[in-house]
Design goal:
The protein has 133 residues and is mainly α. The protein is 72% helix and 0% strand. It folds into two domains: 3-54; 80-127. The chain contains seven helices and no strands.
Length: 133
């Protein structure tokens, strides 16, 4: 089956062909059983798809997609900035919760007790004792 005839056949399913192309396609359909079989198969598929009653895409879908690609709503810098803000806010909440927990468990109020730092004594370092006991 000739590829140009197949392309003509596919085009004829979507748009009306010019007179010359229409005659060429009709002659090819008369002379080629393979092309007639392909035409029958395409028409059966088309009718089966129409019988489902579902529209696959809304009108002007391709135009809307191309417009979004041409003019994105959010630049990549704005996207990363918004992600950073979210992560920074989450980190601030974690620091505040951990600080409040450490303050509730600490004996003294200070930077070391808020962040849970523990400074081992010189004796602990020399004897290689666990500094967090």
């Amino acid at each position: 089956m000739n590829r140009s005839f197949t392309n003509l056949l596919l085009r004829s399913l979507d748009v009306p062909l010019p007179e010359k192309d229409r005659r060429t396609l009709e002659e090819a359909l008369r002379n080629s059983p393979e092309l007639r079989a392909a035409h029958t198969e395409f028409m059966d598929l088309r009718s089966a798809l129409r019988s489902t009653g579902h529209e696959s895409l809304n009108p002007f879908f391709a135009e809307r997609v191309m417009e979004r690609l041409r003019h994105p709503r959010v630049s990549i810098e704005e996207f990363y900035l918004s992600v950073f803000r979210f992560i920074a806010a989450a980190a601030a909440v974690v620091v505040i919760v951990c600080g409040a927990y450490n303050l509730s468990r600490a004996d003294a109020l200070g930077f070391d007790s808020v962040f849970g730092f523990h400074h081992p004594t010189f004796q602990q370092v020399l004897t290689l004792e666990a500094p967090f006991e």
